[in-house]
Amino acid sequence: LRRHVLKARKLEAVEQMAAAISHEIRNPLTSAIGFIQLLREGSIDKEKENQYLSIIKTELKSAERVIQDYFTFSSPNTNITETISIEKVLQEVLDSYHLMSSLQSIQIKTNFLNTLRVVGDEQRLHQCLVNIIKNAIEAMNSGGILTVETESVGEKVFIRIKDTGIGMNQEQIDRLGEPYYSTKGDMGTGLGLMVSYSIVRAMGGTIHVESKEGAGTCFHLTLPGVKVHG
Ligand code: ADP
Ligand code: MG
User: Fold this and answer.
1) pTM of the entire predicted model
2) pLDDT by residue (tens digit) across 162-173?
3) Best CA proximity match to 134, nearest among 158, 159, 104
4) Distance 44 CA to ligand 2 centre (A)
5) N or C, which end of the chain has less CB nearby within 10 Å?
6) Which residues form the Histidine kinase domain (predicted)?
């Protein structure tokens, strides 16, 4: 049984998320600094020292994950509008996950048929696609196929990012894009898709998710396209 959900969630603009996210980064950093101060006080036995060091490492990793999901782009407050080749950005993202994918026995297939460009901030679009593709790879721990396709119909660009991973049930699909919703415990932030949905919405596009537990997931992105000149 296939499940379809059209996402029309009202989300804050990317700019308005900055405050919440910086809070998410500041918390683990403050904690790490606290433990470093404890270490510097000396007279701590080896066991406690190791314990503190591992907490520091965990906190720093957690801050790093938030940054990975949100801050690939350097300028969250500017509104750059460029004419972007979706295929170029998708290829860059796939190239950066090439090693990780092959280590996880994931085969990557692409079929780029779109002839239009999209308008927006390329770094943000890159971040948006990273977050969706990273989830697809993470859903295929024991291998699978990642299929990335583009196509244009009329003035619209269609992007499909499909995995053969663990899939989701209806309740999970309905919660996608909700801040801090994650099923990955300490390994997740629950911020990745919130960021992706905001970016697509800001570009005037939509995301539609199809998924089946144990079979896989397909993210369908639709963006307004423009003709290439020259
Ligand atoms: P995170 O990856 O940090 O958990 P995200 O916002 O990126 O946060 O994703 C939220 C949740 O959506 C994930 O924890 C997972 O449960 C679910 N999810 C997203 N993409 C997929 C996918 N391709 N396959 C299965 N589950 C997914
Ligand atoms: Mg994620």
Assistant:
1) 0.82
2) 999 999 999 999
3) 104
4) 38
5) C
6) 20-227
Query: ipTM > 0.90?
Result: yes
User: What's the gap in Å between 131 CA and the centre of ligand 2?
Assistant: 5
Q: What is the distance between the alpha carbons of residues 84 and 204, in angstroms, rounded to a whole number? A: 14
For residue 140, the ligand closest to its alpha carbon is: 1
Please identify, by atom number, the ligand 1 atom nearest to the C-alpha of residue 167.
Answer: 25
Question: What integer pLDDT is reported at residue 16 of this predicted model?
Answer: 56
Q: Give 64 Cα–ligand 2 centroid separation in angstroms.
A: 13
Give tens-digit pLDDT for 21-79. Answer: 777 788 889 999 999 999 998 788 999 999 999 999 999 998 888 887 776 554 555 56
CA 66 from centroid of its chain's CA atoms: 10
pLDDT of residue 71: 67
* Nearest-CA residue for atom 14 of ligand 1: 182
Ligand nearest to the CA of 182: 1
> Cα(187)–Cα(138) distance, rounded to whole angstroms?
10
